[in-house]
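Late entry, written up from scratch paper. The run itself happened at the end of the previous shift, but nothing got recorded in the book at the time, so transcribing now.
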Amino acid sequence: MAYSYLYLNQMNPLKKIITNLTFWVLLAIIAGILLGHFEPETAIKMKILGTKFIDVIKQFILPIIFLTITLGISGMNDLKKVGKVGGKAIIYFEVVTTFALIAGIVVAHFIQPGSNVNTDLIKGGDISDYTKGASTFSWIKFLQDNTTIQVLIISIILGILLSKFKQKDKIIQPMQFISKYIFKALHIVMLFAPIGAFGGMAFTIGKYGLATLIPLGKLMITVYITMAVFIFAVLGYILRYYQISIFKFLNYIKEELLIVLGTSSSEAALPSLMEKLEKMGCAKPVVGLVVPAGYSFNLDGTTIYLSMAVIFLSQVFNVQLSLEQMLTIIGILMITSKGAAGVTGSGFIVLASTLTAIEVIPVEGLALLLGVDKFMSEARAITNFIGNGVATIFLANHEKAFDRNKMEIAFSKEVHEYDFSEKN
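Output as recorded:
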């Protein structure tokens, strides 16, 4: 059957294109941009398509995390490995995000994206919700609101208990059955990804307009370039340590990247990423532990943006930061950036709390970023998404819980296309 499918694809290139999810998502993004530019009022109404798609995908995230971790840990013989993977993941997150933080500050310091910015041309926004959030933000509240972390902890505990239970098969088999059909349902939902991407992109362009980019174009270009360099240089080097190509990995998850681009949300493709990481050879327990934890604590793109935004605002207001103040910013963001997930508008809340803490840059400057922020959220989400994939692959290799044969099969273009068509 596989050979006949490949033969038909070779004989009919058009069929190969129209059955490719990447093609439809890319087409939807282009259509969203055009609608947003030429018919902004209509485009704004398309927001519901993007938000509803993300809302549906969110329903899969917690069940998939729960089942993946519980089933993975319950099947492990060496439970000490769970603690080792978790501990190494935290260290990895801290090292890489700190590097991202410093990279953002250094690049912004030398390129000076905030110099000579005419603030009169920039339409400000209301930042009262974010400054209020900064004053009430706490780690206890963060953990209470972050259901991903809660499910992660419960799943680990349940997985450990099941591993000690003699008749665990009676519980595990139904869970495996449920897991199978949850992923089948996910594959069906993913067919609607082009609609979600269209709605998200149309709303963004219609609401904010491409003209918004002009006054802050230098900042946006600087952010995109910095994140691209971080992906291909830093994350690429991390993968190259285990002789894995960053380009092959990105090609493997290209559908998910386009979905993240269209919806500006890494959540939209998170369940699919977990499945693909398993298929490319990462052990289930590693995927289950690293990806959900990384979603809260390994936000490379968000960290880069936060650090660059602080330096940008200091340049806009001609605030000369001393070395001591720069180190203070790094120290504050090393802590607060870890809470920039699971709370609506948390990125701006973290920025507000950071500016309030250093007391030298006007907090009101955040209003300058509100309009253009939406256009940079795609870069943040994509970098966060790739960063968590790379972290999982690195830690799976480090723990010798990686199957390179599966990776070679997964990276094979023909087999990958066949698998996609077969599922759908």
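Residues 80-111 form the longest helix (32 residues).
(Scratch paper discarded after transcription.)
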